[in-house]
Specification:
The protein is mainly beta. The chain has one helix and eleven strands. The termini are far apart.
């Protein structure tokens, strides 16, 4: 991914070395000053103001999923919904906090995952 600053006219690459889970970004969504990035290896949040990347490693459904191309939307209630190789994931970005890879006690996360089982959709809640 490239970040271009129109004021300074500087451009720099955002890659796995910067903290992305993958160099393949399939979906991008803007919300409250952040860019949410659905990649081949999970979800992350990019802050264009300070160029920081927060990946969500401790939440299995968000870290192990391959996010589909252009399969995301913001719902009226403020939740973000993403299509993945494991179904859909929906979460409130205000209730999802970054954690570090390998955390034994991950920070509080709340999300719902939907997947198809025998022609009906099943929802799984992580808890609130």
């Amino acid at each position: 991914m490239l970040h271009h600053n129109y004021t300074t006219r500087e451009t720099h690459k955002i890659t796995v070395e910067s903290g992305l889970p993958s160099n393949y970004v399939n979906s991008v969504m803007y919300d409250n000053g952040y860019l949410w990035l659905g990649t081949e290896n999970g979800l992350c949040r990019y802050n264009p103001a300070d160029s920081t990347v927060h990946a969500y490693y401790s939440t299995l459904a968000l870290s192990s999923a391959s996010f589909n191309v252009n399969a995301s939307c913001k719902l009226r209630n403020g939740e973000l919904m993403w299509g993945t190789n494991n179904g859909a994931v929906m979460f409130n970005p205000d209730k999802l906090y970054p954690a570090q890879r390998g955390d034994l006690f991950p920070e509080y996360h709340y999300f719902r995952q939907f997947y198809q089982r025998k022609s009906r959709f099943v929802a799984w809640n992580s808890g609130e």
